[in-house]
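Tutorial, part two.
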Amino acid sequence: MGQQIKLIDRFRRLHRSLRLSVTDRCNLRCSYCMPAEGAIFVPRPTLLTFEEITRVVRLLSNRCGITDVRLTGGEPLVRRELPKLVAMLADLGTLTDLSLTSNAMLLEPMAAELRQAGLRRINISIDTLDEATFRRLTRRDGLDKVLRGIDAAINAGFENIKLNATAIRGITESEVIDLVQFAIEKGVQIRFIEFMPLDADRNWTNDGVLTGDDIRQRIESHFGALIPHRTSTSQPATDYLIDGKLAFGLIESVTKPFCNACDRIRMTADGSIRNCLFSQQEYPLRDLLRDGASDDAIVRQFIAAVNAKESGHGIGETNFAPPDRPMYSIGG
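Running the prediction step on this input gives:
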């Protein structure tokens, strides 16, 4: 099996989680992620194959202690035959968690198959329950498809379903209470994620961030006293109970970074390792895989990436610069 190696960086953070992008393509054009027109995608032959992805995950789980894999994009459901990859990863038998993040536009006909293939959890992006606002944010129609996708996920019996809403000042304020109420009625949790500087148009400013404090105050003023609830020091969200039930979470990436507890490493759809969403450096893997590199060589590349990880993302610091790749190209 080879030497067992823990992926521990200079700041003694142990990495157990892999965020794995399977495509940079998407069927929406969300303003906080993609340009309205002219999105540039990597050539399809450069995407890692399912066999290449499975080899990497097998190595990381067997030799480096990675136990949690989340499939991302782009929109991962636009990758053809995705349930096949889910089954290949689930069949490894070494992962304690296998999950996916989706905009749910294609989820309705696929939810049951994904669950049967071995997908355990799913996160669904939904920023609004209003069709006009959905169209403004995503530059596409289709809120009805997202809502049907949520229902399909519930009916498929996933172990856990979370809804994700990007918190943007001037947009999200009027959505907060309705989204929390919607999640409560559906029996799922919603998480509000502070707007981060990952948009392709580079229009992000700090003034555009609807803060977790603001959201918390709005929810508390409507629902009453909130009880914080945290099950893991490495989870990005602070969860809150309403009437004793888990109702919503806040991921305060900008105002209250959780970098000191980060246990994630990332792999792009075209086979590069990134140690942070905001990293300016990548560690190429695809050519190693296709040139016959040994397992040891592949593991060493992950070790190098983890060793170079910074203490934090640096948002708000004078020398901060957003990554060269936009969010859809990095992987959510």
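Residues 89 and 284 are 22 Å apart (CA to CA). In part three we will examine how such features are distributed along the chain.
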